[in-house]
Amino acid sequence: MTQPYKKVALIGLGLIASSMFWAMKRGSVAETVSGYARSPESRETARRIGLCDEVCESAAEAVKDADLIVLAVPVGAMGAVAKEIEPHLKAGATVTDVGSVKETVIEAVGPHIPDGVHFVPAHPMAGTEHSGPESGFATLFDNRWCLIVPAEGSEDEAVVRLESYWQELGANTERMEVAHHDLVCAVVSHVPHLIAYTMVGVADDLRRVSDQEVIKFSAAGFRDFTRIAASDPTMWRDVFLTNKQATIEILGRFTEELMALQRAIRTGDGEQLHAYFTHTRAIRRGILDAGQDTDAPDFGRAKVDR
Amino acid sequence: MTQPYKKVALIGLGLIASSMFWAMKRGSVAETVSGYARSPESRETARRIGLCDEVCESAAEAVKDADLIVLAVPVGAMGAVAKEIEPHLKAGATVTDVGSVKETVIEAVGPHIPDGVHFVPAHPMAGTEHSGPESGFATLFDNRWCLIVPAEGSEDEAVVRLESYWQELGANTERMEVAHHDLVCAVVSHVPHLIAYTMVGVADDLRRVSDQEVIKFSAAGFRDFTRIAASDPTMWRDVFLTNKQATIEILGRFTEELMALQRAIRTGDGEQLHAYFTHTRAIRRGILDAGQDTDAPDFGRAKVDR
Description:
2 copies of one chain form a homodimer.
Chain A: E1 7-11, H1 15-27, E2 32-36, H2 40-49, E3 54-55, H3 59-63, E4 68-71, H4 78-85, E5 94-97, H5 103-109, E6 118-119, E7 122-125, E8 145-148, H6 156-168, E9 172-175, H7 178-205, H8 211-216, H9 222-228, H10 233-242, H11 244-267, H12 270-289
Helix pairs in contact in A: 4-5, 7-9, 7-11
C-alpha cells in the first residue's frame, strides 16, 4: 500500500467523487479525505452516509492543506471552482479533475493554478447511469481505464504520482495527448450518448406509438438506449457544449454513414447491408478478447442452462 | 399443462427455433418436434446436441403430419420456404412464423397457404446477439412479449390456439394490427439496430482513432452498441429490406431530431440540451416500473457493496 497523497479534497460529490472516496477507504489510499458539494442537500446526504471524513461548507475550506484536489464537478463549472480555490491551495499540491473533456477544462482551469502548484488533468472512463452522492461504490474503477492528460507544464513527477494514485483506486492508467483524448471520447462515448438520447426522444415523440408500447417492447434493442439516455443531464449538456468540435465532426461522419445505409435500404442493396453488418461483428470480437465485456448473451436475458 | 399442438415442425434451426424447442421440452408443450435447416452443418449440429426429436433432410419431410409449422428463417426466405412446403401441409394445420417484419411476410407467405390450413403470423420479441442452432435456451421467451398479428382470414380459433401455445413457452401475448406492428418494431428495434451498426462502423472507419483505443475504452457507452451490432447480418439485412417504409420514416424522424440537437450544440444552446436530456429520463423510469429491466447500475459494472 502506498499513499501518494496524505490529504485528498473532493470538490463535487457525485458518482465519480463518491466512488473515489469508497475506493480510497477500501485501499487506505489517503489518510484524510475532505469534501464539498455546492448543494446543501448533497452535503447533508454525504454527512448522513459517511461520505468523506469531513464535509466542508466551502470549497476553500475543503482544499485547505490538501495534497491532491480533485475537481469532480460538471465540465462547465470547472473554471469557476478553480478560481474559487486558487488562493487557498497549498504549495506543492496537485490539482486534477475528472472531466470527460480535456481541452476546455485545461483552458478554464489552467489560468487559476498558482506557481508551485501542479495541474494534471485526468479522466476516469467509468460510470453508471446513476448520479449523486449515494450512487458511488468502491469498485467502479477496478480494471477500467483512467486517462492521464498532462497539460502544458505538468511536471513528470506530479504526473507519475497521480498515475500511481489512480492505480491504487483500481484503475489502469494511460497517458494521452489533449486533442486526441477529446476525439477518442467523442467516438466511444460522447456521440453514442447523443445518439441514444435522440433515439429515446424520437420514440417518445411518436404519437402513433404509445409510451406503453415503447416500454413494453423495449427488450428488442431499445432498452440499452434508454439506460444510456438516463445519464445525468447537466454533465452531458456540458460535455457536448465543451467538446463541440470533435462531437460535430464525429456526428458528421455518423450522419454520412447512416445516409449511405439508408440509401442501401431504399434501393434494396442487400449486399452492401450484409457486408456492413458482417464487418461490425469483428469489433465486438475485439472487445470480448480484451476482457472489456463478456460473451454472455444479453439483450437483458441471463443465459440459463437447459 | 396443455398441448395446443401434437406435432410441431420447426423450419430453420437458429436462435429462435432452438429456443422454442428447449422451451417446448421444458414444459412438454408438444409431443413430437421435427426440424429442418437448409445447411447440412446446422442439421448435423442439431442432431449432435439433440435439438428436435427428428431432424429431417427436407422442409417437406419435416412438415409431414405437423399440426403447427413454424417458419423460423430470415424474413427474405419465408416466401420460398412456404412455397416448398405448400403441397405437404396437413388439412387443419396452422402455419406461423417468427419474423420481425409482418406485412412483407404476409404478402410472401399468404398465397402459399392452401384452403383448410390456417395462417397466423407472430413475432416473439426476444433474442440475443448470438445465432445458430447452439445459441438457443429454454428461458428465452419467459416474460417477454410475443406479438400475434392475424392476417386477413386468420380464424379466431386458430389465433387463440397459437396464443396459448406461446404462453406455454413462457411468453406474454398481445394482438397487433399488421402496419402498426411494423411501425412499433421500427421504433423499438429496427432503427436502434441500424444506428448501432452505423456507430460501430464509424468508429472502425476513423483512422485517427485506433481499433485498440475503440476496444480499450468501449465501456464508456460504446460497448452496448457493439453488442447490438454483433447480431446476425442476414436476419438484419432482410429486416431492413422488408420493413423499408417504416424504417425510412423513423430514420427521417431520427435524423431530424439529431440535426436539432447538433444545432443546439453548435449554437451553444445549453437549455435545449438540458431539457431534452431530462425528458428522456422519464421513459427509462417507465421501463423500470414495467419490470423490463433492473435499476442496477450497469455500464458493464455490477454494483458491489461497499
